[in-house]
Design a protein that fits this description.
Layout (H helix, E strand, L loop, with lengths): L1 H22 L5 H22 L4 H19 L10 H12 L1 H19 L5 H18 L7 H28 L5 H10 L1 H33 L10
């Protein structure tokens, strides 16, 4: 329920700012987008802070963020072949939806110190954060195995991350915002999104289930995380 309220608060913030900008006839769409994206992240960060995570939980979340950043940096020279979304999804499955959002958003932000910061960064933060958040919600109600992990990972990375991240390209490239122009930009990104989604699916199929099971055993033994993870 808390996760749903967080998402609703983010949506209301987006609607309020969008309405304000439209009423005042603001034409700086890129600035509008960045403001909306930043505001959409605030409810997730506030909700996570309100949950009062322990030092052990923060250490585990930080470890997932570091692993996600390294997984992206390791394939620096191969466009879109990045396991970062797979790491985010595994973290969301193990630690819950809110933690999944934090892992996704911060791993995108930190890794862009390597790949380059810019106006596209908030789009990537929200996109990867939402992948983690939605994955955490989905795997709270369906079983985790290599087939469900890879299928959900493919769909979320292609449909959710691809659309949100490609929106930044629309803001940079398109000037008249006609439907054909916007659709052409999204169509141009399909190949890249497919490669990213396929990479995520393959990594989750091979490594996802064993990684989750090992982390579950470690958690049972040492009690590293006692939040909304593991079905709680």
């Amino acid at each position: 329920m808390k996760n749903v309220l967080t998402a609703v608060c983010a949506a209301l913030a987006l609607c309020a700012v969008a309405a304000f900008m439209i009423i005042n006839k603001t034409e700086n769409y890129l600035l509008l987008s960045i403001i909306l994206l930043v505001l959409s992240m605030l409810p997730f960060f506030a909700s996570f802070e309100h949950s009062k995570p322990t030092a052990r939980e923060l250490a585990l979340i930080s470890s997932f963020i570091a692993l996600a950043v390294v997984s992206r940096a390791a394939f620096y020279l191969i466009p879109q072949v990045k396991p970062i979304a797979a790491v985010v999804i595994i973290g969301a499955v193990c630690l819950g939806a809110r933690s999944g959002y934090m892992i996704g958003a911060f791993s995108a932000f930190i890794s862009n110190f390597i790949f380059g910061q810019g106006a596209h960064t908030p789009f990537q933060m929200v996109a990867l954060g939402l992948v983690g958040f939605v994955a955490g919600l989905i795997f709270k109600v369906i079983p985790q195995n290599k087939y469900t992990l890879s299928a959900v990972g493919f769909v979320l990375t292609f449909a959710l991350y691809g659309v949100v991240a490609d929106t930044s390209t629309v803001m940079f490239v398109v000037s008249d915002f006609s439907l054909p122009a916007v659709l052409s930009v999204y169509a141009a990104g399909v190949t890249f999104s497919l490669v990213f989604a396929a990479t995520t699916a393959v990594c989750l199929f091979i490594f996802g289930e064993p990684f989750i099971k090992k982390l579950e055993r470690i958690n049972i033994k040492y009690g590293l995380y006692k939040g909304e993870a593991y079905g709680k």
